[in-house]
Amino acid sequence: RSFDRYAYAARLALTLTPATGHRLGASAYAGRRTQYRTADILYDFQQRSRIAAPDFLGPEAYWDRYQATGQATVDGQRLDSLTFYNENLRVRRGDFFIGGIDYRHAWSEGQHLTLSALYEHTFLGGPTDNLSLAWPNVGDTLQYQYNTNDNPLDGVRLQADYHHSWERLSLETGYQFRFLTHPGDFLYEDWDLENDRWVTNPIFTNRLGLTRHLHALYAQVNGQRARLTYTIGLRMEYMDREVQLAEPDTTYFLRLINPFPSINLSYDLGKGWTTRVAYSRRIERASTFMVTPFPEREHSETLEQGDAELMPELIDLGEWGLVKAWGDHSISATAYVRQVHNLINRVNTVYNDSILNRIYTNVGTGRASGVELGTNLYPLSWWKVYVGANVYQYRIIGTLFGDEVNASNLIFSLNGNMTFNLPHAWSLQTGFNYLGRRATAQGEDGAFYNPSLSLRKSWGRLSLHAQWQHIDMGLLQSNEQRITTAREDFFTTTNYVYEVDVLLVGLSFALNQRTKQTKFIQSEFGDKEY
């Protein structure tokens, strides 16, 4: 599996101050992105057998046998077998245009009102070619399928924010409106090998339309009293979502009103010690792809689709932490509980005897409770060390396709880096990230790690940067992850191997030294859907 990505863009930002206390701003972004995802797979001796029910051992048992002997099964009656090569190319294209204006009026240094508007138009689409060839004679085509889609997206955001601060207290309040419309036409075709022509597949060809309105009001108070610093806020949100499906002619409605409270208390214990208690709730909304309820061909053995009735994830997080700081050094420990309602997982069902249907759906509630540790140290003035570790118990409880889900495991993650500021404007940084295996509703996602190395050299306004990502050198298993799912009627395990030993080289030159960082406009809608 490999990716080729191409992107170019232009940004513009203008600021005008017509009078004291008044500021006008305008910004624009236009760009194009293209991504080619190649997944070429050799299916070595795909075999179908008929086994009597009393003799059936279960899907996972046959995988264990294959690992031990190199044969999936010798039981029952063999129906057929096939070795073939599958070329799967998915192209994703996006044309982006974003424009925004804002106005800020300040009555005084501590009191101001900001009004802003943003419009975004993004055209998304791209085909997927799924070509199955004979092996080793790849000149013979066994099956050729093509699916493509056109997904123009239009989004609007209107926002008003008011800020008023006093000596030890400040108030922030505002309103936000967001609107998204995202239709899509999906064409799925099969190549007729006998008549040399494309034939539309009516099962997978369809049309979808998604609209979403969102209204939100928020208020937040920030203050300090003696050694106590606090932030207390509340956001009320109303969301209205419609998913319209052409075949069959169906509309799925979802209307939600949710409160999102937050509180953050920090207390200075003295002598460099600080303790913090916090609680917050946030929402993670599904992309349009995840609510598209008809499949597209991802690989020879995989279809992928969403769920039009998919609920957004609601995430509650409670934390208690302790920090010790001395000089430039610090060490911290945070105990936390995170609960995800309407947890979304990617799960599988059986489509036919050789194809699984991969679906994004709600599986219940996910709960993580653990401890996170972090430290920043300077062993020498030119040497900085950061190490972070996270250990937590993870559990999923819910129902999936009528079956109970109760899965859990202990997860460990580690990330760290060391920075060396060397003589003559050289700097060197090494990094390492590790994530342990994690339980899912139908199996587990395997461990994943990545080492990296970067080097920078500066000559005044000119700087050279080189980065070595996913260091492997044929000695490690960097940037790869095994994902396994199983039920009584299927077992699948895939080891995803991505590019390793990636070298990035960049050269930059600063025309002038800006005293303030220019704020460029960013995508509010298209980035997530791309």
Q: What is the distance, rounded to the nearest whole angstrom, between the alpha carbons of the first and last residues?
A: 19 Å
Q: Classify the fold: give the CATH topology.
A: Maltoporin, Chain A
Assembly status: single chain
**Structural class of the helix and strand makeup?**
mainly beta
Number of strands: 27
Globally, the shape reads: globular
Low-confidence parts:
none
User: What do we call the CATH homologous superfamily?
Assistant: TonB-dependent receptor, beta-barrel domain
Measured by DSSP, the beta-strand proportion falls in over 45%
* Number of structurally distinct domains: 1
* Helix content class: under 10%
* Corresponding CATH architecture: Beta Barrel
**Largest beta-sheet characterization:** 23 strands, mixed
Give the SSE order as H and E letters: EEHEEEEEEEEEEEEEEEEEEEEEEEEEH
User: What would the average pLDDT be, to the nearest integer?
Assistant: 93
Per CATH, the class reads Mainly Beta
Rg from Cα: 27 Å
**Tally the helices: what do you get?**
2
